[in-house]
Amino acid sequence: MRYELDKVDYADARVLEVNRLPGRSYFVPYPDRAAADAVALERRRYGSPLVRCLSGEWDFRFYPRPAELPDELDTDAVAWGRVTVPGCWQFQGYDRPFYVNLRYQFPFDPPRIPTTEPVGPVFSLMGEGSVGPRVYHPVDEYNFVGVYRTIFELSPHEMASGHIVSFLGVASCIDLYCNGRRVGYAEGSHNTAEFNLTPFQRVGENELLVVVRRWCTGSYLECQDMFRNNGIFRDVLLREVTLSSVWDVSTTVRREERAGRVRYRLCVGVTLLDDGEARVTLRGHGLERTAAASTHDRRVELSFDGLDVREWTAETPALYDLYVETASECVRCRVGFREVRVDGRRLLVNGRPVKLHGVNHHDTTPEAGYAMTPAQIERDALLCKRHNIDTIRTSHYPPDPLLLELCDELGVYVIDEADLETHGALVGRVPPSHGRITRDARWRERYLDRADRLFERDKLHPCVIMWSLGNESGGGCNADAMYELLRSRSGLPVHYEGAIHSRRRAYDVGSEMYPTVERVISVGEGRSSVRRLNDRPYVLCEYAHAMGVGPGGIEDYWRQIYAHEALAGGCVWEMADHAVLHEGGGYTYGGDHGEWEHDGNFCCDGIFYPDRTPSTGARVVRHAYRPLRVRHVGGDFFMVFNATSFTPGDAFTLRFEWSDGGVAELVCDVDPLRQQSLLVRPTAQGTADEGEGLRRNRMRWVTVTVTRRETGEEVSREQMALTEMAPLGAGPLERRAAFPEGCEVGEKGLVLPGVMAPAAEPLLLTRVSTDNDRDLVGNRPLEEFYDARREVVGVVRGEGSVVVTTRLVLPRHQFLCVTTYEAVAAGVLVTARLHCERGRGDLPRFGMCYRLDPSWDEVDYLGRNGESYRDMCEQAQVARVSCRVGDMTEPNIRPQESGNRMDCQYVRLSDGERRVQITAVSRPFELGVKPYSDEELRGMLHREDEVRTGTYLTVQAFQMGIGTGSCGPATRPEYRFDCREDYELSYLVSWE
User: Fold this and answer.
1) Is the pLDDT of residue 686 over 70?
2) Would you name the residues annotated as active-site residues?
3) CATH of residue 941
4) Which of 926, 913, 811 is CA-nearest to residue 861?
5) Is the pTM of this model over 0.85?
6) pLDDT per residue over 778-814, tens digit each?
7) Which residues form the domain of 118?
8) What total of structural domains would you count in the chain?
9) Any domain includes 439
């Protein structure tokens, strides 16, 4: 079949769409109510006899040089390949994955985009982690074209109906043809594009041809921080329609509260393809109401007044069935009754203030890019619920509609964001400007289209509590126009962080990315220098950048969020790492695919790894978002704070377990967002775990486990120290006149021949940089401490003692370390004292490292039972842990410092026969056990590089906190250590 292909519209700024149908609510019609009720939510899209899913294997032809695309395409003469729809062609052997953050992949010259010519040269003010102008000259880069083809059949019976085809997501644009004729054009990658195929259909085989461009004019509005993928990446649906089919459904709920009684009014709008009768039924939770009317101009509006209903919230996601029935079909929608409004500085849901425990969510998988299966979408929603996350910001586009349906059902608030980001405008031209396109009125229609499509598709969902105008596009007239459109159609608040970079500063809620805790406090207290942040609710739309190890310091934000009514919560950046999965299980990130520009592993910034295995960051977030917070206030008294908005405290059971064996279990009826003091004494005795000898527990704590009474699900576990660690007794430290047999002390330190020796770098003043130890412009301050020159100043030997004095010389610092080794009854007492002779600033770490053979693989310790650092430790509790060396580090996509354990009283390593133990003396130490050295770790780029070369044991007086410096505030002062202070590290080494 032959097609005359259009080669103009995708690059014509005057063309936004051709024959695309108006936006409407997403739903799947069924022949009748029984059929609509019979299909589970995740199968609803695929189970209707009125809707055919065209997803599957399609023919595909890739044109790496767009000039090779013929003006007239003969599909019978094309050498087709095959690809999966939905899918991204970069993940199916065409082109390559390409990750970039805030830059465009083509020269910034709006509205012009490359057509058939090569891309370049490309100017940017930033690139690959550094600031400064540069010009790229890409090679073999073009505006690639992918042509898709599928065949579907229509029987004579089906020809009696018309058909609408729905593309739920195509990047970057869609040029649609059917049976030799052009159907239409649309752009807006994450917005639904629908076309009427009725004039083009025929009995028998029907050929559908889709031309997809790498970039179109609309690509200027899609400069999001993600792999830049292309293709038909969401389902394609073919809907059978008749004149009595439902075209659109809308609902409006109004809440009235009088004398303590709440009633709702539900208005339902129904649009048919032609005039006819519509019957609407509301049913659920013992309520059933029905109304019917004939349409006028294809539309009818019905209302139900005085409804006594269960209200929808993320904590109580009560839903009702809304059936819209006509002569030919039934549409079943799930509706919830909720009101969201701004009251002064408070964000209210159903009249109560809420704190949003949120995360930013991308539609992303390591196997298929933007394409997600229903099971993967459901998995993400369930992961949120299991980790106490009650809010998703759909960064930075509308998600697959199934995610919103799941959020309705499960109870997750959604900040629904338009498919809009022009971040590259900031660095694509001099002078830099956030709002260069947003201030340009010539783009108004495209901005309004993205707001319109966002609202119309998602307007039925009770989970949506705010509309968001997009991301990082500055402010200006086009954003204002989007705001006015949304407020004219919806009573929901409108969010847009980009306004902070304009004179407007904020819309209905104030919002900022990655502010310091001090800035958050100033907003909470109403004294921000930005006045429009002082008179409305404030949301951290992005905070706690979870790149690599981290996020650190998240608890500091939440203490302030709960303390100030204006602080409405925030969304961690972000949910999952973006990476590409390869055969064999390896992951790659920016720069691994031959990209001519990229931003490295900046895409690996999630609290879950790409396969959704939780990282420590997920545990940190789950703990920070716990529904009940407990703190010890003295003696047998504890304070319980209910961090929910709608759930009474007696929905939870609290189990207190003391380290010396006491147990108590109780229920606390504390009201939402209130606190209550409790007297808690053990009501039952457990088994005290004292250990023996040097493995005895020397401190007292209580661990509180909170579970939901209805389900028994554990929602949090937190621990409070009741006493500090007792010093090691005098017996093990009794001095001896000679060192025990089997040990030596030399210039580098203690050696246990054949067992343990100082590492190549025995004295550690820094760590291998984490992602959060660097900043956006590429500074890596911890690396200033790499490769210190070690000078042995002196070795003094006495009876049962050796004193080694070492000087460490660095470019900006100089330290003197005096280490004393003393023979004692239990082994060797090591005491290291560090003094700064020159330099200032922070000291990243003070510790000593030993190397053992790889056969020493068994680890037993008493300390925090997971990765923990100064500003991210409360998610882990002090406990006895037995594991392998490989369990002591974290599988970050880019290897880096990881696996630190705080508050350790001892660690014992074993090869199955022999044992070596390090025991804290006067205070707990921090522990690191790795299967490779820090020197080796510095050169690693991917998980596959983590090859075991030994067992490396590090004992530390301290290690600084993590912070979120990769895209936010660095480590706070209280989690840092001034290098001008003197520090001491002492521990006992014993063996058997």
Assistant:
1) no
2) 472, 542
3) 2.70.98.10
4) 926
5) yes
6) 788 899 999 899 999 999 999 999 999 999 999 999 9
7) 2-23+44-240
8) 5
9) yes
